[in-house]
Amino acid sequence: MSSMQQVLAAGPPVSVNGPRRPRGYRQLRGADFRWAIAFVLPYAAVFVVFVVYPFGYALWIASKPSLYAELVADRSYLPTVVNTLLFVGLGVNIKMFLALLLSGFFMRRRRWIRALLGVYVLPWVIAAAQACVSFHWMLQDQGLVDGLLSGLFGIYGPIWFNDRWLALGWNIIVYIWKWMPFWTVIFLAVRIKIPRDIHDAAEVDGATGARRFIHVTFPLLANLYLVCTLLSTLWTVGDFTTVYLVSGGGPGGSTDVLATLGFHYAFDTARPALGVAAVLSALPVLIPVVILLMRRLQASEVEL
Amino acid sequence: MSTALALRQPVRRRYRLRGILTETGSIFLGVVILIWSLVPVYNMLLIALDPEEGEIEFDGNLWPPEPSLEGFRAVVTQEARYLEHFWHQFGNSLYIGLLTMVLTVLIGSLASFAVSRMQLSKGSLLTNAALLTYAIPASFLIVPYFRIMHSYGLSDNVWSVIAAQVTFATPFAILILQLYGSLVPFELDDAARVDGASAPQVYLRIYLPLMTPALAVVAIYALLLAWNDYLYAAVLLAVRNMTVAVTQGQLFSDTDAPWNAMMVAGIIYVLPPIAVLFTLRRYVVAGLAMAYVTE
Fold first, then answer.
1. Do A128 and B230 touch (CB under 8 A)?
2. How many whole angstroms separate alpha carbon B271 and alpha carbon B258?
3. CATH number reported for the structural domain that contains residue A166 in this entry
4. Rounded distance, CA A222 to CA B81, Å?
5. How many domains does chain A have?
6. Domain range list for chain B
7. Residue of B26, B43, B242 to mutate for A, most A C-beta atoms under 10 A
8. Rounded to an integer, what distance in angstroms lies between the CA atom of residue B213 and that of residue B216?
9. Does A110 map to a domain?
10. Do B142 and A119 touch (CB under 8 A)?
11. Is residue A2 part of a domain?
């Protein structure tokens, strides 16, 4: 244990260039090679059985071109694509930006701010279904939101889920509420590791507050910010729960996103192939995002 | 000397003014964060304390007019409608959540140990390919999963949900473990190797202890992924094998359901992840503190 700490103290785990073993330092041979293969095997199996096969199967289900023609002809498809773009574009970007700013707030070493962090991560811990259902009821006529509006400002709230844009707006707000804490914690964990001397040096040069953030903190975090945004984009395109349980896709399916539309086709109208085609139509956008993500990750392994 | 003091005075005053402004600002921000985070939670409590079961309606109340613990009693005794299997479903949630957590940590750490510490050649191909999992978001694969699980003989079996959750949690786990692992020096691995430790010994005695903070993060992430899941549990499982989250979601617009009891179920459902978060928080904080100290 003590020797471990010594080594840790000797080689700071926050070194800017991670420890790199020289190339060709040691070739895996014999028992080592077999162990390494055995260690990788479980994940390789999971990957083949639960990723490659379902992928291939999905592509095969939705391979008929006529499905896509039918999709485009469907009046609800185009609005759904617009909703998905708005939901993901606004939701992800607002959330990530606020998370980055708030991680700076939670960096402050105050006891009450630490305690507040405990409350702040609560939305992440509450199961999505429960949180969304709570929001759904909160936004009913005379629910808590209306109660607060009339109690504080004397405004009589509209019927939130009767209007496409209001309902879509609330879906985005609930999404931000639910997922902002997770990314704040990620940013916080990384920002704590930025060596203090960098900040001290910046302070000596007179860079404080906003200027320090723009010229010192953000450039250090830029790559991470991009990686997180890309990853979050991929996850958010597949966010089914928020839309399904807050607005329910209503009014009249006008706030559906691709994930809920695909579910609707597959399980409510018993057209599974059409459902898979609906979601796979997002692939031309998603594949480049994944490739960009992989590129940035390879870069960040050196930079972070 | 005196001129220097006189010069310093206004500067100090300006600093103090700025300090007060920052303090006021952060208290204001703190209050906003508190309200933002807690209002939906408070709403759950508000509905949970309502004495009447069924026929949910609102009168713009900001606190329960006649608070009652009837909802809590009904849930604990499983008398509430739709919640007859509450404890069984709660057990399912725990089972799925904990197994997802353990399997993700195990499979993810073994793979990233072999690839980044033992440097299995071509191993990074696998860890890179893992990210392809996210090219089609989880919810997009529900139809193929539904059929595949059937062909694997896993329909209405909690293991189908566990398998799905592990599949979607592990790529992120590997990513985090690789990023964190690149900050941990190789010296200890090498020292142990020289002493004749085998690969599993290095994994157990060196790698796992050094990676504890990252493993804690991965564990929390995997648990919450399974805990948050609605779609997979809803589609792949029938009533008795369902998780608590599903029951609520499926009735979400049913004004006739006993919503006080439903919200109580929701509140109880929040407790296990909070417990796990607080247990593991120690390790995360320890890891972060270590980074502080060694700087």
1. yes
2. 21
3. 1.10.3720.10
4. 51
5. 1
6. 2-74, 83-294
7. B43
8. 5
9. yes
10. no
11. no
Q: Which residue of B has its CA nearest to A304?
A: B179
Q: What Cα–Cα distance (Å) separates residue A81 from each residue in A74, A86, A285, B197?
A: 12, 9, 12, 56
Cβ atoms of A255 and A243 within 8 Å: the answer is yes
Of A186, A194, A219, A208, nearest in space to A95 by CA: A186
Please count the residue pairs, one from chain A and one from chain B, whose beta carbons lie less than 8 angstroms apart. 332
CB contact set of A57 (below 8 Å; sequence gap of 6+): B144, B147, B148
What residues make up the domain containing A224?
69-303
* Interatomic CA distance for residues B134 and A165, integer angstroms: 29
Inform me whether the C-beta atom of residue B174 falls under 8 Å from chain A C-beta atoms. yes
pTM exceeding 0.90: no
Q: Does B286 touch chain A (CB under 8 A)?
A: no
Identify all chain B residues contacting A11, using CB atoms and an 8 Å cutoff.
185, 187
Touching check for B30 and chain A: CB below 8 Å? yes
Provide ipTM, 2 decimals: 0.83
Nearest CA in chain B to A196: B295
Residue type, A99: A
Please spell the DSSP secondary structure of B117-160, one letter per residue.
IS--TTHHHHHHHHGGGGGS-GGGGHHHHHHHHHHTT-TT-HHH
Q: Which residue has the tokens 């309606």?
A: B57
Q: CATH topology for B83-294?
A: MetI-like fold (1.10.3720)
Collapse the DSSP code of B107 into the 3-class scheme (helix H, G, I; strand E, B; otherwise coil) and give the result.
helix
Sign of CA dihedral A41, A186, A133, B69: positive
What residues of B are in contact with residue A137 (Cβ under 8 Å)? Answer: 43, 47, 56, 58, 259
Residue A165, C-beta contacts closer than 8 angstroms, at least 6 positions apart: none
Q: Contact A42/B106, CB-based, under 8 Å?
A: yes
For residue A29, is it within any domain?
Answer: no
Chain A contact probe: residue of B22, B128, B143 with most A CBs at under 10 A: B143
pLDDT tens for chain B, 295 residues: list them.
455 555 556 666 777 887 888 888 889 999 999 999 998 888 888 888 877 655 566 666 677 777 777 777 777 777 777 777 888 888 888 999 999 999 999 999 999 998 888 877 777 788 788 888 888 888 888 888 888 888 888 888 889 999 999 999 999 999 888 877 877 777 777 788 788 788 888 888 888 888 888 888 899 889 999 988 888 888 888 767 777 777 777 776 676 777 788 888 888 888 888 888 888 877 766 655 555 444 3
| Residue A189 falls inside a structural domain | yes
The CA distance from A266 to the nearest CA of chain B, in Å, is 7
